């Protein structure tokens, strides 16, 4: 493997903890030299995990780092990436990102939620999402950032993603029609709409995007406790 950076992200607009941890999982900042191979291996075993995302498939760990990290998330001060470790098995279980963040406007977005196949229908997804919700919405005195809004955007056809967000208490705000252009390799997420002659991206499909969000006031009015219950319940169920 060629040289991969061993540096933690220092470009993100918010402070990044060395670890975010629950009873079931821990999230650590993505470091290419430590995590690229295991993340790549998880994607290779189930390439369909990125069918609704604008990344992959990749031919090597280096290609993953170059496209996903070095050219996309890493240079952007509004984005950062975490690797998910399952504490029950002590294995790498996926990755999750914060994107489109704004320190002045106190908001962020949970994105690139990828759970490796062995950890579907376990505690991993709910715990990873719950940890980032706490990190974002808890006040600084509680160890969080004190943000006002956490957004979640997904291909409207990606029912598992939309369902996970709703389970964790995100409110559906609407659908952005014709929101993104999709290359032919991502046609599974095409909205099924027609084409018009002369379109500058003729031959490429389109994505409709579901927009969901969680807010500081709903977080303070019972959502935090509901998220904690879901996180704990899933760990107890998986451990049995």
TrEMBL record:
Start and end of every N-acetyltransferase domain?
38-189
A GO molecular function assigned to this protein is:
protein N-terminal-serine acetyltransferase activity
InterPro entries (alphabetical): Acyl_CoA_acyltransferase, GNAT_dom, Ribosomal_N-acetyltransferase
Q: Which domain of life is it from?
A: Eukaryota
Listed name of the protein: N-acetyltransferase domain-containing protein
Q: Which organism is it from?
A: Moniliophthora roreri (strain MCA 2997)
């Amino acid at each position: 493997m060629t040289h991969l950076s061993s540096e933690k992200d220092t470009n993100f607009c918010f402070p990044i903890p060395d670890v975010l941890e629950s009873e079931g999982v821990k999230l650590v900042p993505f470091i290419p030299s430590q995590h690229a191979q295991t993340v790549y291996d998880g994607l290779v075993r189930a390439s369909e995990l990125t069918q609704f995302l604008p990344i992959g498939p990749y031919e090597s760990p280096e290609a993953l780092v170059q496209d996903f990290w070095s050219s996309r998330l890493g240079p952007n001060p509004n984005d950062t990436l975490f690797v998910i470790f399952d504490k029950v098995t002590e294995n790498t279980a996926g990755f999750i990102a914060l994107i489109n963040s704004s320190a002045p406007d106190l908001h962020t977005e949970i994105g690139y939620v990828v759970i490796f196949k062995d950890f579907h229908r376990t505690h991993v997804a709910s715990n990873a999402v719950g940890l980032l919700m706490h990190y974002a919405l808890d006040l600084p005195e509680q160890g969080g950032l004190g943000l006002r809004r956490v957004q979640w955007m997904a291909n409207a056809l990606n029912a598992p993603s939309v369902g996970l967000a709703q389970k964790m208490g995100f409110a559906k705000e609407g659908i952005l029609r014709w929101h993104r252009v999709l290359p032919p390799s991502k046609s599974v997420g095409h909205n099924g709409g027609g084409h018009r002659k002369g379109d500058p991206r003729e031959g490429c499909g389109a994505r409709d995007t579901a927009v969901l969000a969680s807010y500081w006031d709903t977080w303070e009015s019972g959502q935090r406790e509901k998220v904690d219950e879901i996180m704990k319940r899933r760990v107890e169920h998986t451990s049995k």
